[in-house]
């Protein structure tokens, strides 16, 4: 079966004001298959968030190719890019900030359904169903982001992300801002959704213990490159590269 | 080994609302007490109460915080200023943002030393270089000559810890000192704080939500929830055999690396 996401020789160069080049992502290739949970780990500045931003087309790639569900989306824009977002959605680190503070959570979720052609009424009903799937009571539809806790907001963000029935969720540090007990709840929700809808996850995370529990496969990034890749259990228990060893030895 | 700091049935209120209820514990010289809990549990408030950093709306409404026979909440601001830094040091989550961005680290640290009576710039630089060298910084003079933004986040934090020790405080209050750092850098800062205790016998009050940091550093552990003490005891004992249901839940929620 063809992978949900195929990334080939991805490269991103940023230019500083002084005109200096900074290669944030260098020759990164990987694939994510249906129902698979793939993690990218690494320290701040290793390029893992840039990879997420390139894959989701929030930044333009310098070189390389991104193929989503068999379609090349490397330079997609307009209608074509919109089509890609029906298959791929994102959840970000800061739950409250990913919603418009002046709109209710319900409006935020319904908006993407409306953008994809649902009537107002259909979108409202679907929003309530999505909230329920994500463990939130119907009255959250009428709440503003600041009226919900971080964990509740993140549940709403996940509800919004699965609204279009995507095949791939990209989670950039989606649980890092949450307390551990709340994090455990969100992970349980993600596991349940993954089973129900056979979602694939690209899970950007710096918590290696969490990745070991949650993900099937892991990519280790260092200075823009993937230095090691494999089954999470294998990579974490028997790291082959010196950098991976050092990273894992630092975990308390 | 004497007692350095004692919280005696402390309540803290913000705007008349009681947020921390009836907290009592003591810290011995050279002891590291970890205070753990989730957001909003009151752990930072506890630490800030000792320094009078509760802001306009917050105050200790019951109980006392004893330091060397004096009750900290009752001190005048002048008295508080005299012991801040020299007797009780603090280190925050982002030491870098406690520095002024447009003056060098050396200038700012000398200003701190001047406030506590040092006048000789040369002597200060000598002492600072010597201390930084003891903490294993490769080029102490470069740190003094740097602007804060020229140091990495981890380096800023390490400089913050070392700088707090220039005045040799008896106790260091640390509020999430490693939470903004990557794991590899976190480990360096933890090692540096353990070195602080080893070299100077400084007691450390460590507030963190990271149970791994507690495991690596703390002798005693206090678990807070909703402004109340949930559990308090020897860190190893609490971590291995938690008694309170909440502590069990908290520890179970922390992902542990299987090596």
Describe the fold and architecture.
The complex is a heterodimer of chains A (252) and B (259). The mean pLDDT of chain A is 93. In chain A, helix 3 crosses helix 4, helix 3 runs parallel beside helix 5 and helix 4 crosses helix 5. Chain A has two domains: 166 residues, Rossmann fold (3-Layer(aba) Sandwich), CATH 3.40.50.300; 67 residues, no CATH class. The longest helix of chain A is centred in the last third of the chain and has 18 residues. Chain A has 252 residues and is α/β, with parallel strands linked by helices. Helix content of chain A is 37%, strand content 25%. A six-stranded mixed beta sheet of chain A has the order 6-7-8-3-9-10, with helices on both faces. A four-stranded antiparallel beta sheet of chain A has the order 2-1-4-5. Chain B is of the alpha/beta class. Chain B has a domain of 178 residues: P-loop containing nucleotide triphosphate hydrolases (Rossmann fold, 3-Layer(aba) Sandwich). Chain B is built from ten helices and ten strands. In chain B, strands 6-7-8-3-9-10 form a six-stranded mixed beta sheet, sandwiched between helices. In chain B, strands 2-1-4-5 form a four-stranded antiparallel beta sheet, with helices on one face. In chain B, helix 7 links the parallel strand 7 and strand 8. Chain B starts with a strand and ends in a 6-residue tail after the last helix. The model of chain B has no long low-confidence stretch (mean pLDDT 93).
Element-level helix/strand string of chain A: EEEHEEHEHHHEHEHEEHH
- Residue windows where pLDDT falls under 50 for at least 5 positions of chain B: none
Largest sheet of chain B: 6 strands, mixed
CATH architecture assignment name of the largest domain in chain A: 3-Layer(aba) Sandwich
The global form of chain B is globular
Assign the structural class of chain A, choosing from mainly alpha, mainly beta, alpha/beta, alpha+beta, or little secondary structure. alpha/beta
CATH architecture field of the domain at 3-98 and 171-252 in chain B: 3-Layer(aba) Sandwich
